[in-house]
Amino acid sequence: EVQLVESGGGLVQPGGSLTLSCAVSGFTFSNYAMSWVRQAPGKALEWVSTINSGGTSSSYANSVKGRFTDSRDNAKNTLYLQLNSLRTEDTAMYYCAKGNSENTVLPMSPLTPRGQGTQVTVSS
Question: Does 31 score more than 90 pLDDT?
Answer without folding.
Answer: yes
